[in-house]
Amino acid sequence: MKRSRSALAGLLCMGLFLLVAEPVAAQNSINDQLIGNLNDALLYAALPITVLVQAILIYAVFKFRNNDDPKPTQENRRLEITWTVATAIVLLFVGVASYQVMANPFITAQNNDVPDEADVEIEVVAFNYGWNFNYQDAGIQTTGEATIPTDTQVYFNITADAEQNSYIHGFHVPDLGLKQDANPGQHNMVKTEVYEEGEYQGYCSKYCGVGHSNMYFTINAVSEDEYQQWVQEQQASAEGDGGEGGNQSAEGEGGNQSAEGEGGNQTAAEGGQGNQSAEGGANGTETNASAEGGQAGGEGDAGGDGTQEGAGGGA
């Protein structure tokens, strides 16, 4: 009897030690915090039950280890009512605690949620095999990497490329507590607020084909000032790339060119683009002066958009 009591006391002490010595992990986001708190609550409920069941098992093993004539257990209505009520209380606690977390908008976001002006909305488009991040309000698109501000609500509008006939993918960032399906032609919303700055690794959580192992992406969480600076740099880079170029003129490739010949306003080009005049005249008017005796002659070099008089000769 003393041994069984000592074993039970030892198990209880071990359980209390595990509760006290459990390391407190840093909460990277509000999603991670909600999920972590739910796991802790379920652990606190499950640990005493586990200790009690194991204690009864150890007690029965030691007490009846030399029993050569076991007898069936007698009916005990009080004991049956006790464990039925205890089980109902435990299940009620688990259900209420889980519902409070699962019904939270940061865990189960609705597609009709409208972000505020201060929030950040990013469209996440999965394709075979990679990720595009579209900042529609800022006019920015990145591939394989997204930058978000800390202490700000961020909405990820997740889908898959329907035009590419993309497979079903899964948007998953374990350290931020984010996970959502990416279905072609369907948008699913995920909302978060990151507390800690840093780089967070994400990947596709659904096996989607030969390139599945390459579907990694990175979420960079920075301060609000650094995020605004990043947005300005991306916008300036996009404007710089779109502003280059000009009108180049070359023979056979565009531009207005004039050639020697007779006549006017004839356009012909071999493999050219744009308005190009070939032999026979170019956007110009050539005037042949008439000579004495009614004979007109002369050759003129064609000019571009001008009037040129040719030399006449009389007989």
UniProtKB/TrEMBL annotation:
Known EC number: 7.1.1.9
Keyword Transmembrane listed: yes
Listed GO CC annotations: membrane
Location within or outside the cell: Membrane
Highest taxon above the source species: Archaea
Location of the region described as Disordered in the Swiss-Prot/TrEMBL record: 229-315
Domain Cytochrome oxidase subunit II copper A binding: start-end pairs: 117-233
PROSITE patterns: COX2_CUA, COX2_TM
GO molecular function: copper ion binding; cytochrome-c oxidase activity; oxidoreductase activity
Keyword Transmembrane: yes
Record field: transmembrane: 42-62, 83-102
InterPro entries in UniProt: CcO_II, CcO_II-like_C, Cupredoxin, Cyt_c_oxidase_su2, Cyt_c_oxidase_su2_TM_dom, Cyt_c_oxidase_su2_TM_sf
Residues covered by the Cytochrome oxidase subunit II transmembrane region profile domain: 12-109
Short name of one Pfam family: COX2_TM
UniProt GO BP: ATP synthesis coupled electron transport
Bilayer topology annotation: Multi-pass membrane protein
Stretches with biased composition (Gly residues): 294-315
Primary location group: membrane
Record keywords: Copper, Electron transport, Membrane, Metal-binding, Respiratory chain, Translocase, Transmembrane, Transmembrane helix, Transport
Similarity remark: Belongs to the cytochrome c oxidase subunit 2 family.
Protein name: cytochrome-c oxidase
Lineage, top ranks: Archaea, Methanobacteriati, Methanobacteriota, Stenosarchaea group, Halobacteria
